[in-house]
């Protein structure tokens, strides 16, 4: 029996979970930390559908388009809603209630940039050496980390729940998504140290950081990831 339908079925299930996450965030009746668990499952299925498509030789144009549509909801729309919710949780006294009524919608600029990045990815030849711009799943995890930290009710929450800081996050996130910045991918051709030194370095930094700092480590790890990528692809040549 052929199972070439499996990758697309998994992609559709990923989209289904993305719809559930969207509804939960809109209704705001479940803690963001718990909603994030569902998105982690989406991340797993996002990897699994591509892996099975390669193993079953089931790559197709429909599969490529479905994957991007699922990613747009799970990793594009969701970060926009997270930003919208964070803006709404920010005290409006510093900018006035009128401005506070429309500023939250700027969070969806991330959704627009995610859509552009996914469309660009589908129309360009891919390479196994690097990503161009921050992948939408990585960006979604980054925005989730800020959302979870903002709900902790500590000093870091107060820093994040500021209109200027949130606007800065929107701008940086959007620029990373649509930029042509070359970023390391993690498609290991082999497990040899040679040729994968920087990938292993990032893994060795990430694991203890996540164990010690938890969700607080994500912005730090992604910042190091960008810096390592810049050093890898843009270092000065002698």
SSE topology:
Elements (H helix, E strand, L loop, with lengths): L5 H22 L4 H24 L5 H29 L7 H6 L6 H15 L6 E3 L3 H15 L4 H6 L2 H16 L3 E3 L12 H17 L3 H18 L4
Antiparallel strand pairs: 1-2
Helix pairs in contact: 1-2, 1-3, 2-3, 2-6, 3-5, 3-6, 5-8, 9-10
Order of helices and strands: HHHHHEHHHEHH
The 3D shape can be described as globular
The helicity comes to over 70%
Rounded mean pLDDT score: 86
Low-pLDDT regions: none
CATH topology of the largest domain: Four Helix Bundle (Hemerythrin (Met), subunit A)
Number of strands: 2
Main sheet strand line-up: 1-2
CATH superfamily of the largest domain: CDP-alcohol phosphotransferase transmembrane (TM) domain
Q: Which radius of gyration do the C-alpha atoms yield? A: 19 Å
The appropriate CATH architecture of the largest domain is Up-down Bundle
Instruction: Give the count of helical stretches.
Output: 10
User: Strand count, sense and closure of the main sheet?
Assistant: 2 strands, antiparallel
**What is the top-level CATH class of the largest domain?**
Mainly Alpha
In total, how many domains does the architecture comprise? Answer: 2
Give the strand content: under 5%
Query: For this entry, what is the oligomeric state of its chains?
Result: single chain
Structural category is mainly alpha
Distance, first to last CA? 57 Å
